[in-house]
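Hey,

Quick one before I head out. I ran the complex with zinc ion overnight. Inputs first:
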Amino acid sequence: MDKSFVEDGSIADYQQLMHEIYDLPGDRNFSMSDILAQQQRFTMRALKGIRKGDLRRLRLNLLDAFSWSMTVVNRMHFNIEEILWRRFPYLCSYCGACPCVCKIQKPSHRLEPPINESKRPPTLRDFQKMFSEIYPGSGRTLADAGVHWAEETGEMSEAIHAYIHEHRPEQLKNIAAEMADFVSCTFGVANSAGIDVAKGLAELFYKNCLACHHLPCTCPVEYINKFDFEKLPEFAPVQEQTAIQ
Ligand SMILES: [Zn+2]
Ligand SMILES: [Zn+2]
């Protein structure tokens, strides 16, 4: 049966969809470092979209970077919606306010913001709205949002590589925190650029893999390594292949 992301789906629905489409080929063909390299590649391509003022390039690559980050989350067996909500419970993770007052108060350490379950956003789109309220776009330029997103991409990778080498429980916790920060900044860039992430994901993932449209994905690794939205007039599917399961 074909699978898709619907615009009013939750972050948990999205994570589950990415698991069903990409974890089988991902587990077989990619190391964690390979996955991070892909996630970073698309993040950087999105940033190029900011520099060039090319919204299409920014949008598509941001969505793809987000989907690669779900492969990281799935590889770590994290529940990203839960992690994101605990770190950003409709409040800034550092100053504990909504909207954030970090620029004025400059908190020296992170306050553990109190969690009010009744405020938890039910859908992915509601999470994006929550981030626009905690961190209004008027407080930064799109370029600043992009720089912060790049920073978080690096910190996430650093946290994962630290854990891969030492396997300490606190390092595992740090990965979760960095993943939440990466996702928060993904929504931050989207909010600054006026990108509706839920709509974009529904357009890309209307039928299984965004490129081959198979479930699970059967895109050849060499195709993935060269995948570039700018070279595709449409999301041209690769040649039909038989999935080996
Ligand atoms: Zn703050
Ligand atoms: Zn595919």
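Confidence is low (pLDDT under 50) at residues 236-245.

Talk tomorrow,
K.
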